[in-house]
Amino acid sequence: MNNVRGLLAASVISIQNSCFIYPACQKCFSRLILDSRRFNCLKCGCAGKAKDARYRYRLSLKIADTSDLCDITVFGSCLDPFFGVTAENLQRCIQDFNQLAGETNTDASPGVLVQAVETCFIGKRFIFGV
């Protein structure tokens, strides 16, 4: 992999999926496998109680600059200002909302959240560190 880093000014064309947070390993940041009682990381072997799992932002975007169209994923706490809360607090809000709405998929993002994220990002220009 190329170790060259730089900045890219580009506009967001679309949001690639509606799952904006994921349970993340605190050692390697990989996605955790969760069941009702436990979590475990397939990459580094970290394990624990499901209630102790930590969450992290993951926003997949299709972006365009003046000459290229590409996919990019933004991770972590740099998204806190856009969402107004940490990923863990947003996860709690989503779970509470889904429980009140009777949603069976407890990880599903409410449609209103997806619309808000689309309004916040689509058509806007950002500087991405790549």
UniProtKB/TrEMBL annotation:
Signal peptide: none annotated. Pfam families: Rep_fac-A_C (PF08646). Residues 9-95 form the Replication factor A C-terminal domain. Transmembrane segments: none annotated. InterPro entries: DDIAS, NA-bd_OB-fold, Rep_factor-A_C. One of its GO terms (cellular component) is cytoplasm. This is DDIAS protein. It comes from the Eukaryota. It comes from Zapornia atra (Henderson crake). GO terms for biological process: negative regulation of intrinsic apoptotic signaling pathway in response to DNA damage. SUPFAM superfamilies: Nucleic acid-binding proteins.
